[in-house]
């Protein structure tokens, strides 16, 4: 059965061969490099690859893995990767302003009733009184880089509580985990597949939830080079169709849990090939299941959240004041929320 989405209709109107009907896909053997982090939140790409959704669209995909968001944005802009899924950062916004990158869809989002990103404290800081975000005044807060999503979340939490915090850039998630566990940094925010594992191991303490400060936060987006968005519509729409199918499968198995136990286990085993792949399945499975957050249906994008993020980066002087969301987002691909 052929399904036409809003994006598909736009592609057909532009004359592109959007949906393969029978036989060989229109984009047979088109090679793509997809940027990703080894997070459960990036599962849509992994599912689309493992279940052949990319291949069905004629896309020959390989993954390029990163340890932070901003380097991925640079790779997309330089052509070292074709598509990426990660948070909005100052680097991504600046690249968009220069005409090098475009956000084309939404991925991970905070949703009421579903466990989301956690606010964590080192055990040392927790024992000294950091038992809630209200006690963050004067404390250090870990970020990968200035202008990262961690920086944005930390600032929003601090503003809501009326406290001052200092940011400690540690470049990589692994380095942050080590610093938090050893008490070299006081606090951090992170997705639940990592946060719950750390708290469960009593390596750190939980002091709050990001959703209490940023409800409906568009945590990650799908983005590509401005050239792909403008000149490779058939390829870009094919990627988004496959990605959206992967997200739907993920939500059904681990968020809505409309699949039976066997279907849920199959999904966890698939994700384990990419997330906590260095751990035994029995150990990794719990963290993967605990880390399941909603991936936007049909890759829709919460433009209100995107606007808030752009406004914050501008207010902090991290990007040019002249930047607009129209520079960042290509609306011809986006299903608005």
UniProtKB/TrEMBL annotation:
Q: Which InterPro entries match?
A: SsuA/THI5, TAT_signal
GO terms for biological process?
A: alkanesulfonate transmembrane transport
- Quote the Gene3D superfamilies the UniProt record gives: Periplasmic binding protein-like II (3.40.190.10)
Q: What is its main location?
A: periplasm
The highest taxon in the source lineage is Bacteria
Its keywords, alphabetically, are: Signal
The residue ranges of the SsuA/THI5-like domain are 40-249
Q: Which Pfam families match?
A: NMT1 (PF09084)
Q: Name one GO cellular component term.
A: periplasmic space
Compartment(s) of residence:
Periplasm
Q: Which residues cross the membrane?
A: none
Q: Which family does it belong to?
A: Belongs to the bacterial solute-binding protein SsuA/TauA family.
Name of the protein this chain belongs to: ABC transporter substrate-binding protein
């Amino acid at each position: 059965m052929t399904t036409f989405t809003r994006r598909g209709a736009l592609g057909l109107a532009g004359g592109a061969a959007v949906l393969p009907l029978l036989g060989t896909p229109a984009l047979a053997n088109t090679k793509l490099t997809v940027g990703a982090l080894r997070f459960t939140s990036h599962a849509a790409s992994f599912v689309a690859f493992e279940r052949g959704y990319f291949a069905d669209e004629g896309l020959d995909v390989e993954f390029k893995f990163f340890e932070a968001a901003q380097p991925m944005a640079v790779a997309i802009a330089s052509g070292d990767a074709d598509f990426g899924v990660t948070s909005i950062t100052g680097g991504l916004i600046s690249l968009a302003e220069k005409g090098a990158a475009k956000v084309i869809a939404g991925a991970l989002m905070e949703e009421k009733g579903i466990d989301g990103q956690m606010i964590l404290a080192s055990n040392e800081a927790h024992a000294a009184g950091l038992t809630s975000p209200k006690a963050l005044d004067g404390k250090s807060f870990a970020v990968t880089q200035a202008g990262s999503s961690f920086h944005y979340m930390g600032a929003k939490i601090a503003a809501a509580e009326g406290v001052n915090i200092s940011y400690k850039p540690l470049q990589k998630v692994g380095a942050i985990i080590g610093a938090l566990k050893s008490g070299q940094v006081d606090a951090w925010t992170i997705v639940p597949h990592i946060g719950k594992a750390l708290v469960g191991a009593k390596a750190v303490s939980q002091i709050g939830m990001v959703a209490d400060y940023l409800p409906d936060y568009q945590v990650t987006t799908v983005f590509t080079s401005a050239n792909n968005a403008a000149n490779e519509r058939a390829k870009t729409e094919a990627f988004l169709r496959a990605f959206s199918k992967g997200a739907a499968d993920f939500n059904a198995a681990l968020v809505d849990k409309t699949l039976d136990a066997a279907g849920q286990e199959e999904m966890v085993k698939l994700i384990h090939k990419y997330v906590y792949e260095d751990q035994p399945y029995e150990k990794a499975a719990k963290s993967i299941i605990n880390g399941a957050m909603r991936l936007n249906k049909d890759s829709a994008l919460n433009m209100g959240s995107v606007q808030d993020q752009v406004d914050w980066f501008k207010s902090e002087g991290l990007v040019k004041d002249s930047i607009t969301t129209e520079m960042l987002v290509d609306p011809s691909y986006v299903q608005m929320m």
